[in-house]
Design goal:
- The complex is a heterodimer of chains A (about 300) and B (about 475).
- With about 300 residues, chain A is an alpha/beta fold.
- Chain A is about 30% helix and about 30% strand.
- Chain A starts with a strand and ends in a 15-residue tail after the last helix.
- Chain B is α/β, with parallel strands linked by helices.
- Chain B has 19 helices and 18 strands.
- In chain B, the strands form five sheets. Chain B has a five-stranded parallel beta sheet.
- In chain B, helix 15 links the parallel strand 9 and strand 10.
- The longest helix of chain B has 22 residues.
- The radius of gyration of chain B is 23 Å and the shape is globular.
- The termini of chain B are far apart.
- In chain B, about 55% of the residues are buried.
- Classes of the chains: A alpha/beta (about 300), B alpha/beta (about 475).
- At the A-B interface, helix 1, strand 7, helix 9 and helix 10 of A face strand 7 and helix 14 of B.
């Protein structure tokens, strides 16, 4: 069992938990993720690592409930435990294997959106601890959905924006990036974009135009997270890649986002959910994130 | 009264095909005591027993069958346990027809003795009566790590524990058993009743199992050896990477690897109402491939309510699956489209599968494997309408371990290079066996390799003293 030491609702329907998992914490690096399973009957859910402490042996996860298993997880309190918690999975960010001197010469900008803000944090923190302060643009739909503002601004030059203009400024993350580059004379050697696929797709379209190499972190459906099932397969530069072992980070200019989004549509659109409900029959337990399960 | 034609096997009871095609209960019901004793009576108790040479773990077959005949079932169990840690599993999934039973002298004139069904009877009986294998008399204090809790790992760990070693198994998934829990379906190999019980037996020998540890990610082999005090490591991590065909449309929604489909159903128990796991049931399912895994996927889809087609590019004679599995699949209503190969998968505007285009094949000259090579018949393309496609084309070893272990050599198929006799690899103190070395093969061959690895590790530790 993997004990939950701290549990809180960070923003409306976004949860943060600190979990005791010494083996994961010991080897964890920015860019990686974990898979958690609540109990015997639960699903294996891939989750973002928001922070880690190898000395205390803890991992901090941030998630937004979308299906029945994550809804159950959201109800957990400090003192409860996950039955299973495995990782660190996926490859660490390329930043971690780049010589620090080389990194110091680069201007890096991060673009995070929604709950995708959480996995940006360990990368910024890691860079900051190595003497590099990167720029970071975080976009949220509205003020209440902005998370980790204090933590992020402590380790980066933070630019916040909201779609509805309820906080700081109105607009998307891409608007801020365009503004920084085209109006404020910023130059970037690398962009790291993490968030909803549609956001990453539009960041990539922009950075291609601006000529900025871009890394994205993909978060498709997974089962085992070790390369065994192929559920998370993507097309990257015309080749099949498994997000769980080849990624989750890829060259954003090579990822086939339209295909990846179609593979996620089943969970994201009413039509997809209806289709899922139909095809899954009585095994459909709310994985669509809509019906809350109808057992 | 049990049938007594000495040339024929005592028939084994099975669930009716029509009934079992709608449930996940075990197909084969096994022998009862009377049937087992009668079948044991057919054994000639050969002095120079050929059957033993056909068994990858060299079970003393005539000796255990003799005990069955005499009604000494516990004794029979202890004889099997000396050689096999998983008799209830092997009695169910071994290809006996090409191994022990393939060599049986009875088989020359009539039917071979039903060794597999007898092994199963003995193991099931022991479990029902709570009989456990005998643990080591004393511990020797040497710590050994075993990677993977599938057939190779469990066998290696069990053998080492009986020799007195302090063994820890590391398992990547949340449940021990490897392919026995994620791959082979419930209706062939019951998970709680059989697999969990045999895993418990291995634990009763003193073996510790740590789940949720991915070697290469959570910890490396070098760290196990240098920091965690293990003196040797056995790698039995299997062949987990699924292959795809590389045909257009393969990324559509509704195309699964057999691994994903079976894992969702077997390990994650999608077929049970009390589990959260969803699975696409499909109304019309095409399974591509002709091996045991393809049969398992097809029969699973059938039980989930679909019309199921197997598409295989060669003819029935070349099907790599066991004859019994093909026979069961047919009885249950799986449709075989043989000498047929997919060329493209069609999908609708939302990228959901709507059909698969296939081409008819004919057999040409034998290829390197000795089987006649299938050749496309030009212009013979035709479409099968379907909403789900399951790719069952084989698997290859996962490079997670080999790529993170310094000095461990692999071949070009990413299989770990290890010798057959002792499982010795290119790295000192590291042994390997099973699908991680051979590529996808059978449970019993992996068990044989696990035994070899245990012998290799024992020799290595002794030579260090």
């Amino acid at each position: 069992m993997y004990k939950i030491l701290k549990a809180e609702e960070l923003a409306a329907n976004i949860y943060r938990m600190v979990v005791e998992a010494p083996r994961v914490a010991k080897r964890c690096l920015p860019g990686q993720f974990i898979i958690a399973k609540l109990d015997e009957e639960g699903e294996r859910i891939p989750l973002t690592i928001c922070d880690y402490d190898s000395e205390k042996g803890t991992i901090t996860i941030v998630f937004q409930p979308i299906g029945e298993s994550t809804l159950k997880m959201a109800k957990l309190q400090a003192g409860d435990a996950f039955e299973d918690f495995v990782g660190p999975l996926g490859c660490p960010s390329e930043l971690c294997s780049t010589p620090i001197e080389e990194l110091k010469k680069k201007k890096i900008v991060f673009v995070g959106g929604g709950v995708g803000t959480a996995p940006v944090y360990p990368q910024l923190k890691w860079l900051y601890e190595h003497g590099i302060t990167a720029d970071c643009i975080i976009g949220a739909r509205t003020k209440d959905l902005i998370i980790l503002e204090k933590e992020m601004s402590a380790v980066s030059n933070l630019y916040l924006t909201t779609d509805d203009g309820s906080y700081i400024r109105k607009g998307m993350g891409t608007d801020v990036l365009r503004d920084l580059v085209q109006n404020q004379g910023r130059h970037y050697d690398l962009c790291v974009a993490i968030g909803p696929m549609i956001m990453m797709k539009f960041v990539c379209i922009l950075t291609k135009e601006l000529g900025i190499p871009t890394i994205v972190s993909m978060n498709p459906i997974m089962v085992d997270g070790t390369g065994m099932c192929g559920a998370c397969r993507l097309m990257v530069g015309g080749e099949v890649k498994f997000a769980c072992v080849d990624g989750p980070e890829f060259d954003g200019h090579k990822v086939d986002f339209d295909l990846a989004m179609k593979r996620q549509q089943m969970y994201k659109t009413d039509e997809g959910r209806a289709k899922l409900r139909f095809l899954e029959g009585d095994t459909h337990h709310g994985g669509c994130g809509n019906c809350g399960g109808d057992k | 009264m049990v049938q007594t034609d000495v040339l024929k096997k005592v028939p084994v009871r099975e669930q009716d095909p029509k009934v079992r095609a709608t449930n996940f209960d075990e197909v084969c019901l096994g022998y009862n005591q009377e049937e087992a004793v009668a079948e044991a009576g057919r054994c000639l108790n050969c002095k120079n027993a050929k059957c033993v040479t056909g068994c990858p773990v060299s079970i003393n077959i005539p000796a255990f069958i003799h005990e069955v005949k005499e009604g000494n079932f516990e004794q029979a169990y202890q004889i099997i346990s000396e050689s096999s840690a998983l008799p209830a599993v092997c009695g169910r999934v071994c290809p006996q027809e090409t191994q022990c039973e393939g060599k049986c002298i009875r088989g020359i004139k009539g039917e071979a003795v039903s060794i597999g069904k007898l092994e199963r009877f003995v193991a099931d009986r022991a479990r029902e009566e709570g009989i456990k294998p005998k643990p080591a008399a004393e511990k020797n204090g040497h710590k050994i790590a075993v990677i993977g809790s599938g057939p190779a790992g469990l066998t290696c760990a069990g053998d080492l524990a009986r020799m007195g070693y302090d063994v820890t198994i590391f398992e990547a998934l949340h449940k021990a058993g490897g392919v026995l829990v994620y791959g082979i379906p419930e209706f062939r190999l019951p998970k709680d009743k059989v697999v969990a019980a045999e895993v418990e037996n291995v634990k009763s020998l003193g073996v510790k199992i740590e789940t949720n540890v991915i070697i290469g990610k959570s910890v490396t082999i070098d760290e196990l050896l240098q920091e965690e005090g293990f003196e040797a490591v056995f790698i039995g991590s299997g062949a987990g990477l699924p292959m795809f065909m590389g045909i257009p449309g393969e990324q559509a929604n509704g195309v699964f690897s057999a691994n994903e489909y079976l894992t969702r159903n077997n390990l994650m128990k999608a077929f049970r109402d009390d589990y959260d796991t969803p699975i696409v049931r499909g109304r019309k399912v095409v399974v591509v491939g002709g091996g045991n895994v393809a049969m398992d996927a097809a029969r699973t889809a059938l039980r989930l309510g679909a019309e199921v087609h197997i598409v295989y590019r060669r003819s029935e004679a070349e099907l790599p699956a066991r004859v019994e599995e093909v026979h069961h699949a047919k009885e249950e209503g799986v449709i075989f489209n043989l000498l047929t190969n997919p060329v493209e998968i069609y999908s609708d505007e939302n990228s959901w599968v709507t059909g698969i285009r296939c081409i008819r094949m004919e057999l040409g000259e034998p290829d390197a494997s000795g089987r006649r090579r299938p050749v496309e018949i030009p212009g013979s393309e035709f479409d099968i309408e379907c909403d789900t496609v399951i790719m069952s084309l084989g698997t290859s070893p996962n490079p997670l371990i080999s790529s993170t272990t310094y000095g461990l050599d692999v071949n070009r198929r990413k299989c770990i290079i290890a010798d057959e006799e002792f499982g010795k690899t290119s790295k000192e103190g590291v042994y390997a066996g099973g699908d991680a070395v051979t590529g996808a093969a059978t449970v019993i061959l992996a068990m044989g390799a696990g035994k070899a690895g245990a012998r290799g590790i024992d020799n290595y530790i002794r030579s260090k003293k």
